[in-house]
Amino acid sequence: MRSSALDNEETHVYDHRKLGRELGLFDTDPLIGSGLPYWLPDGAIVRHSLEEYIRTAERAAGYQHVYSPVLGKRELYEISGHWAHYNDDMYPPMDIGGEQMVLRPSLCPHHAVMYRSRSHSYRELPLRMAEIGAMYRSELSGVLGGLTRVRAIQLNDAHIFCTLDQVADEVAAALALIGSAYRAMGITGARYRLSLPGAGKKYAQAPDMWQRATEILRRVLDRSGTPYDAVEGEAAFYGPKIDIQVTDHAGRESTLSTVQVDFHQPERFDLHYIGPDGAEHRPIMVHRSIIGSVERAVAHLVEHHGGAFPAWLAPVQAVVLPVSGAQQPDADQLLGRCQGAGLRARVDHSEAGSLGARVRENRLVPYQLIVGEAEALSGEVAVRLRDGRRLPARSSDDVIARIRALLEAHDTRLWID
Ligand SMILES: [Zn+2]
Fold it and tell me: Does Protein biosynthesis count among this protein's keywords (predicted)?
């Protein structure tokens, strides 16, 4: 359904497609193809900041990052079960030198093969393998739009190979990572969903496996006190999952983050680890994504914040505004100090218009640093926050240090005194 009738300014809902174009974040071109957005410089900054946040949080949580190719042999997906259960969403194979190659519909099979490439002792578990990698979905052109329905997806993915005893703690830790990320991004999930299999051939047939995996997820959710709805027919083909749902500007719900317990793929890929008894044992795979696809996460952030991103995600974090041409040298000097401190900053000089006009022009920038005659003389700066608060002039060193501390903490508050 096209939603142009719903893009109603009066309801103060933001359509990320419209805003993304206006703010110069991303766009599409019919020559590249629908469902294949490209990222403009300001959008690339938002995406890069998000990816960097995720990688840092994952490293701190004991994940190791890998890279794997976006293509794989058809046989890889026959083994994983994607070919049998997920074929409708996959691109047709390409014949290359007599071999059938497929654009990958998920990262799991690559990670399973990478795990299998080395022998593992129980002492290495849980082994947490993470990658922000591309995957492809053969969406029909009728349902494509902006960043939410795309044909090429950058997924914040990870697979945790662990023992049965470790699964519950790993699921709980993944939910905690998701909680921290949502706080940093200034968003909340609309609801938690326990996604169970439904009827039909879409799901791998192994009743015992489904039951055990579902029990683990239920127990973790119950213990955490998180309210959730159990919904049949929404599981992955290989296992049940916890989905964190968000809603878009038109009220449509979609999954952002997910945690899944999988007994199926370790079996299919014949994965094992050497236990304390010296024998081979089968690990369990926990699939988890903190922010889901980078595309959908950014779409949601754009709509939720109306382009006024938390400062650590903002394409421009500080703008220096000299009151008149006389303060231009001081403004340039302050810009250099902001940039030297790692802030994404620029100057909007007085030729660009009156101070009031420049303040309005930069209304989405979290920090406006105003340099007038008095400030230039005293080496101070007057700060105007995006929410309209004006702070008395203070030393620019102090201002920069406070902004930096908030950015490094991924704090959504604009100022703390
Ligand atoms: Zn996976």
Answer: yes
